[in-house]
Design brief:
Blueprint (H helix, E strand, L loop, with lengths): L2 E7 L2 E7 L3 H16 L7 H9 L4 H10 L7 H8 L4 H12 L4 H20 L5 H14 L6 H7 L7 H26 L4 H8 L19 H22 L4 H19 L2
Antiparallel strand pairs: 1-2
Length: 265
């Protein structure tokens, strides 16, 4: 998609249509797909069943499983790494899980559910090897500094088979941009509660916020959220820049195919 920039042309200032940087085009193409696809295993019957085996309900297994990648820490640490949620929701679920099963065991079990979901949905996807190679290249290049949740996924133990590994990599790259997004929110002077009310207003109750106590939201906050999205893309772009043309093609086509496979009825 081209962008419009103001440039001096022939002694006059004109609006000029410029092609989008290919790396930024890649980021803005695949990241929304990873965002929609990376959580596809969270609340499947199989994942919920695994949580029940560990004595955990669906939401508790989600929080302790995703957060369990961080290891056995305090719930407030997990809440800070997640963002968007009311911290009280995270702390309550985390404490319940810690009293039920070892946190690292929960984290591994939850990440294995991602692999199982990949095996169930992606086994017949063509060119999966090329996608996995491209996704691994981006993940290897991703800088986890100041991104603890992404760091915990980046350094996890991945499945050996292609379908399982592909789904785990999609989940990890989702965490990559999500963690960068939290950095961008703070860098631009907002907080996660404001971001949630702007970006996901229909989900505030599910994330533990009260509609009766909304944060300050105005046109400036909404405009800042657009700046935050752009900054988030800039933060993750260096990792995606390691791909050559073939890698960009494999990642894009794979992200599209995986999203289609995961959302097919």
């Amino acid at each position: 998609m081209p962008t419009i920039a103001v440039r001096p042309v022939g002694g006059a200032i004109r609006a000029v249509i410029e092609p989008m940087d290919p790396v930024m085009h890649l980021v803005q193409t695949v990241c929304p797909l990873f965002n929609d696809s990376g959580w596809a295993y969270y609340f499947t019957p199989e994942t919920i069943g695994k949580g029940k085996e560990l004595g955990l309900g669906g939401m508790v297994f989600y929080i302790a499983g995703r957060g369990g990648m961080l290891g056995d820490c305090e719930g407030e640490v997990v809440a800070a790494a997640f963002g968007y949620f009311n911290p009280a929701v995270i702390v309550s679920a985390w404490d319940q899980a810690r009293a039920t099963a070892p946190i690292r065991e929960i984290g591994r079990a939850h990440f294995n559910c991602a692999a199982d979901h990949g095996r169930a949905k992606l086994a017949n996807m063509p060119n999966l090897e090329a996608f996995v190679a491209a996704a691994e290249a981006v993940n290897n290049a991703g800088d986890p500094d100041s991104m603890p949740l992404y760091a915990s996924f980046k350094h996890a133990e991945y499945a050996d088979d292609l379908p399982g590994r592909a789904m785990q990599l999609v989940a990890t790259l989702r965490e990559f941009r999500g963690s960068a997004h939290l950095l961008a929110i703070r860098a631009k002077g907002l907080n996660a509660k404001q971001a949630h009310f702007v970006k996901r207003p229909n989900d505030v109750k599910m994330f533990g916020w009260s509609e009766e106590e909304p944060p300050h939201i105005d046109d400036q906050v909404r405009a800042t959220m657009l700046e935050i999205e752009a900054l988030t893309d800039e933060l993750v772009a260096p990792a995606y820049s390691v791909l050559d043309a073939a890698g960009k093609k494999a990642l894009t086509e794979g992200a599209i195919a995986i999203h289609a496979a995961l959302t097919a009825q």
